[in-house]
Design goal:
The chain is of the alpha+beta class. The chain contains two helices and two strands; from the N terminus they run H-E-E-H. A hairpin with a 2-residue loop joins strand 1 and strand 2. Bound molecules: iron/sulfur cluster.
């Protein structure tokens, strides 16, 4: 609370959106967006997903990013380190 108003601490907010969904008066003005994180099992090393990009606000952007990520791994990945590949 700040001067009787609810404020978001963006240092702590993880953009889960629960406050928007829970508000009984629709007081929060929010737009849906995607959080894209990169991580996974790189060989024997587990890398926790990292948010390297700002919030993605359209499916078109999302698909361009995922296509680029898939292409990057196709071009640069070591096939023996990928799950499901022989
Ligand atoms: S409920 Fe979720 S989106 Fe809302 S302020 Fe808390 S962490 Fe952020």
């Amino acid at each position: 609370m700040n001067d009787g108003k609810v404020v978001v601490d963006y240092e702590k907010c993880n953009y889960c959106g629960r406050c928007v969904k829970a508000c009984p008066t629709d007081a929060w003005d929010a737009k849906a967006a995607y959080i894209v994180s990169f991580g996974g099992t790189f060989g024997n090393t587990i890398s926790k997903g990292k948010d390297l990009l700002p919030l993605v606000t359209s499916e078109e952007q999302l698909f361009r990013i995922t296509d680029a990520a898939i292409q990057f791994f196709a071009d640069n990945g070591n096939a023996s380190e990928k799950r499901g590949n022989s």
